[in-house]
Design goal:
There is one protein chain. The chain is globular. The chain is built from 12 helices and 10 strands. With about 290 residues, the protein is of the alpha/beta class. Strands 1, 2, 3, 4, 5, 6, 7, 8, 9 and 10 form a 10-stranded mixed β-sheet that branches. Bound molecules: ligand C2E and magnesium ion (3 copies). One magnesium ion binds near residues 180, 181 and 201. It comes from Marinobacter vinifirmus. It is found in: Membrane. This is EAL domain-containing protein.
């Protein structure tokens, strides 16, 4: 990463690279403020069992309520801070906020397991497990198993052994680990085997593909069997339509997250949504094709 201070700021010629660096610099500055000014918030997207109608938990997704630009999804800002130390502060804020919300809901008598997304830089931070332990300690009523860490397959690129060790320490604290966007990286099968993840989240690109691409369907079917054999829990992301749900249920993937169930929503909407949700009758009636 190029240096942003000093004379590079005073170039006469405003090259495109200069502009993009300056805009990254500005975004980082602006996000520091956002964190201080409480402009960040978490939205929650339900995860459900399509067969039983059970709401099994939710994923906490970062949003930035920008005073001028409105509500921003991570795509609009996270790429610019992902590899900077600011991401560590944001990650901690996310962790603390999610734990606080779980505790608040638990006090209202509702147990909602939550997952949070962990960026590569957090995983490379040797202090990460310690911070996690401290954060969990401050909520004695919460069972650590209610927290799940979603880790991108690509976050482990290059240093699988090191990342696996960090995740192992986290797992020893009782939290659950999920591989996020599974199938988009390069060494999926190795990750499947070596990362201490109980949960595997199938990337939405596969789910989109299963209706029109027999190869995607075959791959997904294989992943379902693999997950069975290796005792991993599978959840499909990007379930947008009834047809997606139907196909997933047919091949034996009952757990889902996606717009077809619900879009990510503000915290205050979650418990009311959860109380009324029922899988459509035709989802409930689908039975897994018996394979054995
Ligand atoms: P992700 O972890 O794979 O999260 C799923 C993303 O897919 C979310 O986008 C969600 O809104 C979107 N999505 C859910 N269902 C559907 C669907 O049916 N169709 C389509 N097309 N999209 C769907 P979002 O909230 O914009 O987040 C994007 C990514 O940003 C996340 O992908 C995650 O990698 C990252 N992210 C979000 N929050 C955090 C965070 O707190 N920390 C870190 N490090 N990364 C985060
Ligand atoms: Mg995720
Ligand atoms: Mg994902
Ligand atoms: Mg993603």
């Amino acid at each position: 990463q190029a240096k942003l201070s000093g004379k590079s700021r005073f170039h006469l010629f405003d090259t495109e690279q200069d502009r993009s660096l300056r805009s990254q610099h500005e975004t980082i500055e602006r996000m520091h403020q956002a964190l201080k000014n409480n402009e960040l918030c978490l939205y929650y997207q339900p995860k459900v069992n399509m067969r039983t109608s059970e709401v099994i938990g939710a994923e906490a997704l970062l949003r930035w309520q920008h005073p001028e630009r409105g509500l921003l999804a991570p795509g609009a800002f996270i790429g610019l801070v992902e590899n900077t130390p600011l991401m560590l502060d944001i990650g901690r804020w996310v962790m603390d906020s999610a734990l606080a919300k779980m505790n608040e809901w638990l006090e209202q008598g509702v147990r909602v397991p939550l997952s949070i997304n962990i960026s590569a830089i957090e995983l490379r931070d040797p202090n990460f497990p310690e911070h996690l332990a401290a954060a969990l300690k401050s909520w004695p009523d919460l069972d650590p198993a209610m927290l799940e860490l979603e880790v991108l397959e690509t976050a482990a690129l290059g240093d699988l052994g090191q990342i696996a060790r960090v995740l192992d320490s986290c797992r020893q604290l009782g939290v659950s680990i999920a591989i996020d966007d599974f199938g988009t990286g390069y060494s999926s099968l190795t990750y499947f085997k070596r990362l201490p993840a109980k949960v595997v989240k199938i990337d939405q690109s596969f789910v989109m593909g299963i209706l029109r691409d027999p190869a995607d369907l075959a791959i997904l079917d294989g992943i379902v069997r693999l997950a069975d054999a290796l005792d991993r829990q599978l959840i499909a992301e990007g379930v947008e339509t009834f047809e997606h749900a139907e196909m997933l249920l047919r091949i034996g993937c009952d757990l889902a997250q996606g717009y077809g169930v619900a879009r990510p929503m503000p915290a205050d909407d979650f418990l009311p949504w959860r109380a009324q949700w029922r899988a459509p009758a035709n989802w409930r009636n689908l039975r897994t094709v018996s394979r054995r």
